[in-house]
Amino acid sequence: MGVIVNKENNLDNELSRRIDADLRARAMETVDIDGGEGDSVETDFTDDSEYMRDLKKTSKFGWMWVVLIVLAILSLISIMFF
What we know:
The protein has 82 residues and is mostly helical. It contains 2 helices and no strands. It has helices at residues 2-30, 63-81. The N and C termini lie far apart (85 Å).
């Protein structure tokens, strides 16, 4: 029984070592080579996810919809009470 546990432990250590090496390699790819802290651009890969694939970004006039909705609500309130 001790040998089986030891073998599983070795497999877990090997897997942990591979995962650690892979994560370290990915982290080194994203680190700025020059060492400048302010110049590096962080990526969070949310645009690559399955959820975000078919969504479109809001245009620069998206705030106008909020203004129009607020004005419509205000006009309905003013019609009902005055």
